[in-house]
């Protein structure tokens, strides 16, 4: 019996899961939110029961102490299920990390060096690693990178058509994100279809608050919609996705918006929120049903962009065996799924309307029997994928 502790540390939060790996069952999960504020809130879930508290938690190290105390108080006992490895989600692995990596001092220096590419995430991920080393001395720490799955992108897909010297010097290229999810989901799709991964061409649409598309050929990422940062590509909850880069220059000149304001505009007040006043797809769909004009346009932009990437990746892959929807919107929104694939029957993509609206939760087929392309909904599980990779690394 071996347990893996999975850690996702953010700038003010710690999320964790303890997973028993012979059966791949979650023994406990929890989170500490609002670290550094007056009162943090904590939740520890075990055997279907949630234990919540509010208390001051000043640092990530303290958050780990709180987490260990929650295991002591509510179980399961970490003495009974000692983690054999701690797996950390790390957002940016740049060009250096293309697989899960056992953490040592050099790895930490490299993660730190990549902070300039992910200033909100990598420093927080490092704090989680440092705190875990203190809390679990002698237990190997493994970094699992969001970018790693996309290390296989060909130059044609990752190169931006700008001055090569400037790009090289500043490490400007497409890296791609959500790699852990795209890998998990594309492998689960092959398993669901009972076909060898090596033979399968798959388009994965990870549609959560952040959203990205990925073209997977034989288990290998060959194209993806997010770029240097997670801003490029699809329309997201609060992020714009693709736009003419000159919009930034124009808004700077015309409206006097500086870099900080443009950063906030595109990352925090654009996307569904910017267009419709609502960042949550459930609210947007409800508003369209009520005839809200901005919501109708916003949803149509979201779907238009999605279809654009489906078409691009069908062309890039030379057809697809499967199109897979995952994450909050992908798993739960029949309207978005139907919209994204509407009119693609000429490519052999045919949804079954009944299957699409079925309230079923697990992995499922939603295309019609005569659809040449299998359309699937597969719930993502990034924590399990991190645990698997962390265990495999040691
Ligand atoms: P994150 O990227 O934060 O991990 P999730 O994958 O949990 O996000 O997705 C969150 C999003 O899923 C919410 O913002 C919401 O828009 C969407 N969502 C959840 N349930 C539904 C639903 N029933 N219908 C449409 N959208 C939903």
From TrEMBL:
Q: What is the cofactor note?
A: Mg(2+). Can also accept Mn(2+).
Return the InterPro entries for the record.
Ac/propionate_kinase (IPR004372), Aliphatic_acid_kin_short-chain (IPR000890), Aliphatic_acid_kinase_CS (IPR023865), ATPase_NBD (IPR043129)
Functional pathway: Metabolic intermediate biosynthesis; acetyl-CoA biosynthesis; acetyl-CoA from acetate: step 1/2
The residues listed in the UniProt record as binding ATP, with positions renumbered to this chain, are 15, 206-210, 280-282, 328-332
Which residues are marked as site: Transition state stabilizer? 178, 239
Going by the record, the broad EC class of this enzyme is transferase
The protein's GO terms of the molecular function aspect are: acetate kinase activity
Q: Which residues form the active site?
A: 146 (proton donor/acceptor)
Co-factor requirement: Mg(2+); Mn(2+)
Q: Which positions are annotated as binding Mg(2+)?
A: 8, 382
**Quaternary state and interactors:** Homodimer.
The record's section on NCBIfam families has:
ackA
Protein name (record): Acetate kinase
Q: Which organism is it from?
A: Subtercola frigoramans
Q: Which gene encodes it?
A: ackA
